[in-house]
Amino acid sequence: MRRAHGRTATTRIALISAGTAAVLGLGGLAAGPAAAADGPAADRATGHTAAPQAPAGQQVLSSFTVAFPAAPYRTHNIARAVELINGAVVRPGEIWSFNQAVGERTKENGFVDGIMINDGRYVKSPGGGVSAVATTMYNAMFFAGLKPVEHGAHSFYIERYPEGREATVAWGTLDLRWQNDSGSPVTVLAKSTDTSVTVTLLGTKQYDEIRATKGPRTHVTPPAKRTDTGPTCEAQTPLEGFDVSVDRVFVRAGHEVGRETFRTHYTPRDEIICAPQSPTATPGTTPPGTPGDTATPAAPGASAAPGSSAAPATPTATASPTPSGTGSTPSARVASPGATG
């Protein structure tokens, strides 16, 4: 097994189940060519946004941009998260944490209601949309060759994110963390517009190039179709679930010197049709689709109310790593109900 950064390359798994909650960033496709879904292909991230000039003594390790459809809540929440992470300096050996840097996504911390996923459907919650920042940071870390410590993908695939190379966060249950194992300080530069967010990492290069190679979709699962009622219903288009693996390839002097494999499982995104509420209701009963309705219970472990940022009462599950080498593998944790990231 070849080594990268002196550590044994390993396989990491990001598992998110349909009944769990994760924030829907609805972010845009990251700059750079995406690998085809019908077979292995290399993504050298050559289309990234031009990085700013690095200060004396530092080099641009990576610069990654995610584009997203403009929406007031999304633009606001992304700009607030960018403000909180920009300018951070991560010293050698230190671990950078999204949740620690950004804090809880509450109105008191400057965030507004946005869209997230709960029990496989769209709902509103403070801070919705900042997963675009998490995904951008994850890819910047990925192509900088730094060591991932914790991350988790969205429950179902969001088309504008790179398959198998995206991340969501949930306060108190799921974080995005990476360690600076480069041996030199790393500086975080972040900026955003109404439709994009860019993260640039500065430091000392350890590799000439980092490549991403994506495999084909496997274990494809068709979505179901559901009908919902009530004022909180959000229509949802269907999308198949699938598994995908992405290799991170470390290159020095034109030769591959290390490789890591990341496997991600996406559950199907069910089609949801919003039907009008029945005009007839028995006096004294709760009409279907209104708050308190129990006709359509959430999946086990998804009991947090939309908009709630409290950690769930149920314990957080941890995905078991499947190492391909002998090194220690940090686990990718499952996003929990009420995720606001």
Give a nutshell description of this structure.
The chain is mainly β.
Describe the structure.
The protein has 341 residues and is mainly beta. The protein contains 3 helices and 20 strands. Strands 3, 5, 15, 16, 18 and 19 form a 6-stranded mixed β-sheet that branches. The chain has a 4-stranded antiparallel β-sheet with strand order 6-14-13-7. A hairpin with a 3-residue loop joins β13 (186-192) and β14 (196-203). Residues 1-51 and 281-341 have low confidence and may be disordered.
List key phrases describing it:
341 residues, mainly beta, six-stranded mixed β-sheet, 3 helices, 30% strand, globular, disordered N terminus
Low-confidence stretches: 1-51, 281-341
Head-to-tail CA distance between termini: 36 Å
Largest sheet: 6 strands, mixed
Order of helices and strands: EEEEEEHEEHEEHEEEEEEEEEE
- Specify Rg, calculated over alpha carbons: 20 Å
Secondary structure layout:
Layout: E1 3-4, E2 7-8, E3 11-15, E4 22-23, E5 41-43, E6 59-67, H1 72-85, E7 89-90, E8 95-97, H2 98-102, E9 113-118, E10 121-126, H3 131-144, E11 147-150, E12 177-179, E13 186-192, E14 196-203, E15 209-214, E16 218-221, E17 225-228, E18 241-252, E19 255-266, E20 271-274
Parallel strand pairs: 3-19, 17-20
Antiparallel strand pairs: 1-2, 4-9, 5-15, 6-14, 7-13, 8-12, 9-10, 11-12, 13-14, 15-18, 16-18, 18-19
